[in-house]
Amino acid sequence: MHSGVHGLQKILITGAAGFLGSHLTKELIREGHYIIGIDNLSSGRASNIKDIPQERFIFIEADVCSGEIISLPELSGVKEIYHLASPASPKFYQNLPLETLEVNITGTKNMLELARKTGAKMVYTSTSEAYGDPLIHPQEESYRGNVNTWGPRACYDEAKRAGEVLCYIYYTKYQVPVKVARIFNTYSAGLANDDGRVISNFVTQALKGDDITVYGDGSQTRSFCYVSDTVKGLILLMEKETANGEIINIGNPDEYPIIHVAKLVKTLSRSTSKITFHPLPEDDPKLRRPNIAKAQRILGWTPSITLEKGLKATIEQYGKKLNG
């Protein structure tokens, strides 16, 4: 195993079989890098990575929380670590609350220790959920959030916030070059159909002619970032030395009411589905929109794919899947 052949890096991605991890893996391999992917497949899927060319990709089915992970021989000489391992959709993290806490605390500490040992740079993927149900709008990185430790979403929000604290400690105490991405809703044509996230739900329902289920009155807003934009943001975050020790929002600042998204999906998919309304889940944030001034300034990053363009691609892919 050579690291740094022709300036190309040996890169570790945890959560490589997940939605975002598999897209990031494919993009970095396209750029010519050598990738080690780790996933315990608790919410990731082997099918997400089955088409990846093996000559530059090693997959290790393992849990980043295990004590042995740091001494795996494959991880010596790793130059970059993207720590994405974690359930990320409410359906998964509410089923795996203890594992969600552990992977973001013990798993994050293990990855920071590895970075400290190998001199690697690290990106930790946190979440817009760190802002809770925000009282300021849009959300900027200095906002401390309005969060609840006592509810069904807390296992995720608080796990990610604790992971950020670990990054802060390793950056200030050991000078590990770590950067934190607070990721806002990301979607793509490749998102698993049943993962419970809003766009995959709407598109699947619309294409099957099932009712499109909107929670609350649909006035709550979200900002949706197409996955290729999110991946570009993460890669820039890794590249930029000026991002070390920074928390940076990665998301699309175009904000839409959920009802608008439901109607747009229905129109674009020429669906006969009815839109139905259901009670709002507990602690569901009413507003979500990133302020991305910091990402623009430090990373030179702005997302480029509009919701309509991203939805068209998603609907087309899902249609093929359902008919295939």
UniProtKB/TrEMBL annotation:
Residues 11-251 form the NAD-dependent epimerase/dehydratase domain. One of its GO terms (cellular component) is cytoplasm. It comes from the Bacteria. Keywords: Decarboxylase, Glycoprotein, Golgi apparatus, Lyase, Membrane, NAD, Signal-anchor, Transmembrane, Transmembrane helix. One of its GO terms (molecular function) is NAD+ binding. Its cofactor is NAD(+). The keyword Membrane applies. It is a single-pass type II membrane protein. One of its GO terms (biological process) is D-xylose metabolic process. The keyword Glycoprotein applies. It is found in: Golgi apparatus membrane; Golgi apparatus, Golgi stack membrane. This is NAD-dependent dehydratase.
